[in-house]
Amino acid sequence: MTDHRFTCRVYYEDTDLAGIVYYANYLRFIERARSEWVRDLGLDQRRMKEEDHLVFAVRRLEADYLRPARFDDELTVETRLMGATAARLVLDQTVLRAEERLFTAQVTLVCLTEAGAPARLPAALRAQLVPAVH
Q1: Is 16 noted as a catalytic residue in this protein?
Q2: Which one of 10, 54, 62, 75 has the lowest number of neighbouring Cβ atoms within 10 Å?
Q3: Confidence of residue 126 (pLDDT cuts 50, 70, 90)
């Protein structure tokens, strides 16, 4: 599975004085969606950290804010795998309100040791994802 959908609602705490979603909160929405995407792939990030001493980190993020979301909107975050190597994943993430695109981001994730050194993605995840983008 390389495509994923995650639904969330905009709460009052997500908005600014103008009643629209504060720009940084889109990063929270897409982070939650990525966490659920990884979970749905069958990867337990807690176990990955405890047993393999590996974690994911965002290395690069490019974002476009297209339209504002507002209090009580139901949003869908679509996550699509665009590329994978031995140590890196590139994802496109889109935040939608119904069919209206509000926010897009291209996110590069890397795998790191707990000490912060670069590491290869877990073998099971690589085997599952790398063929999906080639």
Answers
A1: yes
A2: 62
A3: confident
- How many Cβ atoms are within 10 Å of 130's Cβ, its own excluded? 16
Domain chopping of the chain, boundaries: 3-133
Query: What pLDDT digit, counting tens, does each position of 25-36 carry?
Result: 999 999 999 999
**Dihedral-angle region of residue 17 (phi above 0 means left; psi in -120 to 50 means alpha; beta otherwise):** alpha
Spell out the CATH class of 3-133.
alpha beta
The pair of three-digit structure tokens given for residue 120, joined into one six-digit string: 């290869």
Burial of 71 per CB tally in 10 Å (0-12, 13-18, 19+): middle
Structure tokens at 82: 């665009």
* Rounded Cα–Cα distance for residues 47 and 43 (Å): 8
Catalytic residue among 16, 40, 44, 72: 16
Angle, helix 45-52 to helix 25-40, in steps of 10 degrees: 80
